[in-house]
Amino acid sequence: MKPHDTLPYSELPDYSDAERVARSRAFYEAVKTRRTCRYFSDERVPRAVIENAILAAGTAPNGANQQPWHFTVIESPEKKKALRAAAEKEERAFYASKGSEEWLAALQPLGTDADKPFLETAPYLIVIFGQRKGGMNPGERKQNYYVSESVGIATGLLITALHDAGLATLTHTPNPMKFLNQLCDRPAHEKPMMILVVGKPAANATIPLHATIKKPLDQIASWL
C-alpha cells in the first residue's frame, strides 16, 4: 500500500471461537425481532437516543471516508404535517396509476395504501440524504463516491441502533422525493434517499403476517 498515516487496530475484543459463535447467535436472535411498524404512538422519545443512533450510523464504512450522508430529524408538528401532505400526494399517484400491476400485487399482502398517518403521529421523522458532493470538512464540494452504497450501509446501522434502543422504525420512500430538499432546507446536490419513521409502537400495533416470512440461510447465502 502507499504510505499513509496509521494507528494500531487494537479495539476489537479477543473472543474465543465459542464466544464468537454465541455472540453472533445472540445478535441474530435480538435483531430478528425487528419489524417494520406502521402504527406509532405519539409518546415522546429522548432526543439523546436519536443522536446516539445517528452517531452509530456515522461509523458506517463509506467511499473514501467522505461520509456522504446527512440526517435531517423532523419533530415539528408543522413540518410533519407538510411532509405528510406532500408524500401522500405522490402516494396517491402511485396507487392510482404510476405503480405497475406486479408492484401493487407484491404490496397487497402488506396492506399498504396511500394513507400515511404515521408521518404525523410518530415523534421523529429522519430524512436521509445522500451527498453527491461534499468531503470531510464543512463547505467542501468534492466528488463523493459510492454514495448509494454508503448511505445504505449507514441506514442499516441506524435502524439497528434504534431497534436496539427499543424503538420501532419504518422506511418510507415516496417517489419522487425532491420535495424533501425544500422542506428540509437541503441543497440541490443532495439526494433524498428515504424517510425513516421512528418512535414507540402504538399499544394496538400489528404487523402483516407476510412480513414475518424470511428466506432461510440456503436461499440467501452460498459457500464457494
Oligomer: single chain
- Can you tell me the CATH topology? NADH Oxidase
The helix fraction, in percent, is 25-40%
Give a short account of the largest sheet. Answer: 4 strands, antiparallel
Strand order of the largest sheet: 1-2-6-5
Level-1 CATH class name: Alpha Beta
Through-space gap between termini: 28 Å
Which features does this protein show?
two-stranded antiparallel sheet; about 220 residues; 8 helices; NADH Oxidase; four-stranded antiparallel β-sheet; alpha+beta
Describe this structure in words.
The protein is an alpha+beta fold and 224 residues long. It contains eight helices and six strands; from the N terminus they run ααβαααβββαβαβα. The strands form two sheets. The protein has a four-stranded antiparallel sheet with strand order 1-2-6-5. The protein has a two-stranded antiparallel ribbon with strand order 3-4. Helix 2 runs antiparallel to helix 6. The radius of gyration is 19 Å and the shape is globular. It starts with 16 loop residues before the first helix and ends with a helix.
